[in-house]
Amino acid sequence: MTSEPFDTPPRPSGAGQNERDKSPRRGMCAAVLALEAITLGLTTPVMISVADVSTGVALATGLGLLLACVLVAGLLRRPWAYALGWAIQAGAIALGFAVGIMFVLGGIFALLWGMADFLGRRIDRERAAAFAAYDSSR
Question: What gap in Å lies between CA 11 and CA 6, rounded to an integer?
Fold first, then answer.
């Protein structure tokens, strides 16, 4: 049991990151991109075997989008990375021209991305306001 009072600021956890630096928006968007990466990677064999897309094009497209998802998920600390996330959503929907079901799956992931981005921004704003109110009351 510690003897610290309850109103002490949170201690840094992990790699020097404290509770105020954690972004729910970043976490939710990264989760969407991680799941989308799996889906996009699995479209590669479908493009080759079902859609009769050449192996090189299918590998470049499917695995390229998979790699883009992973890279952008890691770059979400930068504000411009969210625009890249939207570009990936457009690419996933456009993949529907090769594999028809990707119009539906790409749309679902675009909806998930949009909700994660919108709700994440909202949560980030509300958390910042709550921390500011807490700081001003001390």
Answer: 12
